[in-house]
Give the backbone structure.
Amino acid sequence: METRTDWGRREPPLEGSNFELYGWFFMRISGLLLVLLAVTHMFIMHVFNDTLNLDYEFVAARWDTPYWRTFDWLLLTLSLLHGTNGVRVVLHDNLSDLTIRKLALGALYSTSLIFFILGTYVIVAFVRQA
């Protein structure tokens, strides 16, 4: 039986799909987009506006336009996908037992899906109260 001594390197798949390659590219592209979105979000919420004015009315006025809802939904979606993919890679690297790995991945995907559905629902279904 062959023992694995270099824990810092994963063995590339010998055949099959290019899912890992696409996942690697996605992490780089989504990371760049997330930096731009997060910096924009921080400037708008904390530099251009006084933090004392960040209340329900500020968010409601902001979400009156589809642009800001789309911006916030994109930030939510990319951050969840980026984080889920990162944790997926960590689980694949560190969990050698196939059953435990499948359970952990199932819990990760379920939790991420629940947060995505709830976040999308809040952004899409928000109605400003008078």
